[in-house]
Amino acid sequence: MTNSIYPLAAIVGQEELKLSLILNGINPAIAGVLIRGEKGTAKSTAVRALTELLPELEVVSGCRFSCNPERHDELCFECLASEQDPSRTSRRARLINLPLNATEDRVAGGINFSSTIKNGKTILQTGLLADAHRAILYIDEVNLLDDHIVDLILDTAASGRNVIEREGISISHPARFILIGTMNPEEGELRPQLLDRFGLCLEVKGSDDLDERVSLLTRREEFDLNPVEFCRKFVDESQRIRRQILQGRQQLSKIRFPPYMRIFISELCNENNVAGHRADLIMEQAAMALAAFEGDNEVRTDHIRRVAPMVLIHRQRDAQPPPSPEPPQNQQNEEDSEQEKSEDRPDKPDEPESSEEPAGEQEKSGTEPPETPENREQQKGEGQEGQTPEPKEQGQDDSPRNSEEQVFEIGASFKVKKISTAKDRVTRRGSGRRSRSRVSQKQGRYSRASRNGVQGDIALDATIRAAAPHQMGRSGDLAVQLTSDDFRFKIREKRIGNLLLFLVDASGSMGSRGRMAASKGAVMSLLLDAYQKRDKVSMITFRRNEAEVNLPITNSVELAGKLLAQMPVGGRTPLSAGLIKGYEQMRNFLIREPTGRPIVIILTDGKGNVSLGDDKPVDEMLKLATSMAGETRAKYIVVDTEEDGLVTFDLARKLAGALDAEYFKIKDIQAEELVTIVREKQ
Amino acid sequence: MQKKQIYPFTAIVGQEKMKLALILNIITPGLSGVLIRGEKGTAKSTAVRALAEILPVIKIIGDSSFQLDPENEYTNYQEICRMLGQTPHVRENLTVREQKVQVVELPVGATEDRVIGTLDLEHALKKGEKRVEPGLLAQAHRGILYVDEVNLLDDHVVDILLDAAAMGVNNIEREGISFSHPARFTLVGTMNPEEGELRPQLLDRFGLCVNIKGIPSIEDRVAIMEQRIAFDENPEKFCAKWQEKSAELVAKIMRAREIYNQIEIDQKLLYEIASSCLEVGVDGHRGDIVILKTAKSLAAYHGRTKVESADISEAIELALPHRIRRQPLMEIPDSIAGLREKSQTA
């Protein structure tokens, strides 16, 4: 039962997915495919089924790297060293599965320690990259892969060779593979570098055709009940595809590629604002594969048209990169979700400045469903920044209008800049993916070895080095004799989550001019980021005369999101009280986790007007901030919600100065796309 | 093995939905588990631990500690022996043991090593021979993997679970070891949603999901207290009293397992499944598949050989709540029927 694989031919629908896999099977130069999509859409099933359909390949027999006997320029060092002409065998195509918890030495290769110790000479143990030469390297949930493993794969994919320079080995061997990854975008995006390595990219989603769903359902159940019988039913169909792939491969070199087609391709790439030239090359290869698959002997525009979307979708560098599929949407009450679709964000990325919405709407309460026209108006109205109202004296914010309570909707959310704490020498435990730290668990990148590393996590290379000088005096039946004194342990580094402590100004002054909506949007964006990086969160709001811990420290980012939606606004600005509450919360956290590194994010315009003692509110606030800056374990970030205008108080900037904090305007915490940076520079 | 008496499954008052979901998973391991969401003190853990006594007996290969099936997994057995450097027995000489399906508990603080298994490196270095310690995933193969407070599980352990659950195989590629063994398990998780939600990927791996609350009825609450006191005072006597009921349930489950393959379903009902998934909006097709399996298991449990429409409605309530497409950071709804009504009136 375990050994039956659901056949590719039996997958209902998902034609594009099947085609992309087959094209890769025909032409390995396409360099792989990234399959993005919802859960349960036959992503992994299809990839596993592909291997069954690939033709056998000729290898040098006994070669650990599956060298191609035809390509003398690409032989590995072992084949080159052997005197006689290599004998050949053929074997089935392989699917090499790279699990998420794989360590560096298993991916790239390293010393085979048990043999090394027995024989007393360095023996290489090949890694997954060697196994993957001329095979498929499959990474499920590729977006969750650790950064240092991604780097290894990038290096290898770029050069077609895996270079091992570690643990006293210095070797390189050929490693060309078809990289296939599947991912669910909800869990975070891929690094652009890695994204570009995938030749093709496509989005899959479940079918919304009833008949298709039903036939899928019947087939799956049939397979589960009797896999062997089920596979037999599709044998013919599978055989046909297998033959098509084989013929396609043979045909590939004979396909004519008319020169004017190259012009067509480059025009296509140009139009779509593609970064780099890989798109052009891949598109050519993919079009040839498609022509070969369909038995044509010349590439036609039609072929190019059909492969173009798969090649371009993840490479477009226009204002809005299409690969980020559904930018996290404005969260609203459940009932609103219908209307929301209409006011989705087609033209969003051009307006990071949603923080500066004009006056006029601020009175509207967010409990009403958001109206599309209103939003449009807001966007149109941008740029009227000059018309700030008369600068008010501090304390005047307390006008009757502002003391009413309102609940504002959450403004548009966006991708935020990287926020992390600096690396230090403290060892921690934890998961997540925000800040680099030394960790006391068997995970992450092995940075160096020490006697007092994590017990049980033996650093083999260092252990042997430590034992080497003593070998003369020791005896035993192993070539290298070890005693307990020799053992060295690994010190590792990885990213782990932080505590994000939000201090949100919910005073009346925030209510005006759509600022609260924008601030909530910013907090929401940070929360979504916190979810992907697996941080703990806590939220404190301050308004009227006091600060309140709305959300004690929790892993539940959902809860924070819900609270945020319901957060009322109104009243004066007890900024000092907010700071103190935040400090208390942070201190309690640090007592429990002395090695923790909280990140305190303060969203305010800085216009505090309630003081706790006898000082003026602003002086008191700055004094408090200066003493808070003494806690070096914390990192502070001030997000200024004051809008630009003729007269600004810049109090938030002063607060940031006193806290020794990073200072941002709301629009500045948005991650900039490559293109926008370039444009600004020009 | 178990000296301590376990509170009998059949003696749990109320929480029918949870009990049903657990029973269905025993009937059809292909449902791949259940997530139980609820407040503290609602017999979540009691119910899962009590499963042990109503689980069926399976055959395993006695020569290895990987719970392998002597009929279908002989090749895996050979493979594992090869990786460990042992010589496998020929098929005829295998020792086959019978044992109950196991409930393996995965503690929230479990290290990665404990979950996937380890190579004893120090031993390997000093003596030059391999010694592999199977992890929890190996123990849970063909059994039940129970995670209390699953939402607090370390992220990297979740990744391991996802990997293993997706493939049915535990692949180890760490620190010089390359090893793999089959790991198909029924994942049972309990959680208190106040402490945070699960990652969508992991959520999707649970076949069924039930939300449970404390019981509001006074009589039932009193009954719960009485039962509990009776159990605490004299566990043996209490369990003996429920012995017969348990045996009945076991027989019913066994019968259902036997007839599951013969259950029929009308084409019309398949359309009903597909259209309800489309209507409420779920990601992918796993929802459809799980509803079908659940409905068939329900029919089998009731001793019928044909799925009825009511089975499907019941299956939907169990299989869909956690699969509905949600806005980021939205909550999981309590009832599908309610949700559909709401969307119809809107």
Q: What structural class do helix, strand and pairing data of chain A support?
A: alpha/beta
* CATH level 1 class label of the domain at 498-674 in chain A: Alpha Beta
Distance between the termini of chain B: 57 Å
Count of beta strands of chain A: 23
State the share of residues found in helices of chain B, binned by percent.
40-55%
Can you offer a commentary on this structure?
The complex is a heterodimer of chains A (682) and B (346). Chain A has 25 helices and 23 strands. Chain A is of the alpha/beta class. In chain A, the strands form seven sheets. In chain A, strands 19-18-17-21-22-23 form a six-stranded mixed beta sheet, with helices on both faces. A five-stranded parallel beta sheet of chain A has the order 4-7-10-1-11. A four-stranded mixed beta sheet of chain A has the order 13-14-16-15. In chain A, helix 1 (15-26) packs across helix 11 (235-252) and helix 23 packs parallel to helix 24 (651-659). Chain A starts with 14 loop residues before the first helix and ends with a helix. In chain A, 48% of the residues are buried. Mean pLDDT of chain A is 77; it is low at 319-403 and 674-682. Chain B contains 14 helices and eleven strands. In chain B, the strands form four sheets. A five-stranded parallel beta sheet of chain B has the order 4-7-10-1-11. Chain B has a two-stranded antiparallel ribbon with strand order 2-3. A two-stranded antiparallel ribbon of chain B has the order 5-6. Chain B folds into two domains: 9-56 and 101-212, P-loop containing nucleotide triphosphate hydrolases (Rossmann fold, 3-Layer(aba) Sandwich); 263-345, Magnesium chelatase subunit I, C-Terminal domain (Helicase, Ruva Protein, domain 3, Orthogonal Bundle), CATH 1.10.8.80. Chain B is of the alpha/beta class and 346 residues long. Classes of the chains: A alpha/beta (682), B alpha/beta (346). The interface between A and B is large, with 83 and 75 residues.
